[in-house]
Amino acid sequence: MNESWDRTSYHFLSQVVIFLDVNDSKQFVEAAYAAYRKRPATDTFTLQFMAFITINYLNCCYHQHADKSYAESTFKFLQELPVDPAIGLEKLIGKFYQAVFSGDEQKARSLKSQEACSSCTQNSAHAACWLLQGNRSQSRFCR
User: Fold this and answer.
1) Cα separation of 47 and 86, whole Å?
2) Where would I find the H helices in 22-65?
3) Coil, strand or helix: which one is 90?
């Protein structure tokens, strides 16, 4: 796989990962994580693209019923990303997926009903509320 990853490569992967088979997705995201770890960048766009990769990949794993082992490295990678308001929402969504993959219904529900979501005032917070409320008919976590 090409090792010359840059912001454009991360952006492209963040958008296409949801269209790939989970096995193919895993190979690409692992390569992206390795490239980022070799040359970490902390500019807002790169951080956002890396966070988008993680969330879209977790979404791919969830909807393709992948085993938790597919998601473990992504949970670890998300924790390694720096604390930055630009990716706070993605970190919260990552914690939600971690609870879902672990079968922790109580934690998943708790994350869905965070105080910030009930009084959100920014578009990104509204998006988090909408996403975490999800499609109620597809998951026991979305009630």
Assistant:
1) 8
2) 22-38, 44-63
3) helix
The model's pTM: 0.78
Burial class (CB in 10 A: 0-12, 13-18, 19+), 54: buried
Distance from C-alpha of 61 to C-alpha of 45, rounded to nearest angstrom: 24
Give the Cα separation of 97 and 135 in Å (integer): 14
Q: Is 41 left (phi over 0), alpha (psi -120 to 50) or beta?
A: beta
3-state DSSP helix/strand/coil % of the chain, to nearest 5: 75, 0, 25
Residue 101, SS3 per DSSP: helix
**Look-up of token digits 């869905």:** 112
Series of mean pLDDT values for 10-residue runs along the chain (143 residues): 83 96 97 96 94 97 95 97 94 94 87 55 46 44 38
Using the structure block, give the residue that is written with the tokens 């914690």.
95
Of the candidates 117, 92, 96, 91, the residue with the CA atom closest to the CA atom of residue 108 = 96
